UniProtKB/TrEMBL annotation:
Its cofactor is pyridoxal 5'-phosphate. Residues 3-199 form the Aminotransferase class I/classII large domain. It catalyses: L-aspartate + 2-oxoglutarate = oxaloacetate + L-glutamate. This is Aspartate aminotransferase. Homodimer. It holds the Pfam family Aminotran_1_2. InterPro entries: Aminotransferase_I/II_large (IPR004839), Asp_trans (IPR000796), NHTrfase_class1_PyrdxlP-BS (IPR004838), PyrdxlP-dep_Trfase (IPR015424), PyrdxlP-dep_Trfase_major (IPR015421). It comes from Malus domestica (Apple). One of its GO terms (biological process) is amino acid metabolic process.
Amino acid sequence: GHIKDKRIAAVQALSGTGACRLFADFQKRFRPESQIYIPVPTWANHHNIWRDAHVPQKTFHYYHPETKGLDFAGLVDDIKNAPNGSFFLLHACAYNPTGVDPSEEQWKEISKLIKEKGHFPFLDMAYQGFASGDPERDTKAIRIFLEDGHLIGIAQSYAKNMGLYGQRVGCLSVLCEDEKQAVAVKSQLQMLARPMYSTHLFMER
């Protein structure tokens, strides 16, 4: 697997917000010409995070207020029409604020289209275990992207599904091409974290 192959660059972050911000700064530094596509609606702080990292933002259709469901047709069109190699912010499960998640078949179609366009999927997973009641089942979207061969970024927050007294626990993971790239990416993430919150904290592997 990817862990055994040492292809994952992972650093502890200050919950999900810190993981998103660390990735936004990483995106700005190494893909300065890129932009981030953010769903409508989304957690309000997403816009603040990428704005303060000076990453240009665009939005894509996600929620249909009339049906109170997923605007899948609009989402698909926006993925297709975005410039090749764009970054897409996706909620891995328990979508905030609507609670509307794609079905397994819809996730497979989203993954396929993102792969065809060469987009980079960044998944924010703040509520693992809260959508289905099973933390393993709630990784469904991530597993689909991995099975399709994507390189992905994942922001994980553990502020809701566990607690560590006095700490804001989170993790930023980036799946890389190989172990050499993972070592390089991790070193850059650590350098970005240093002036942000001094240390990559206590969960070094």
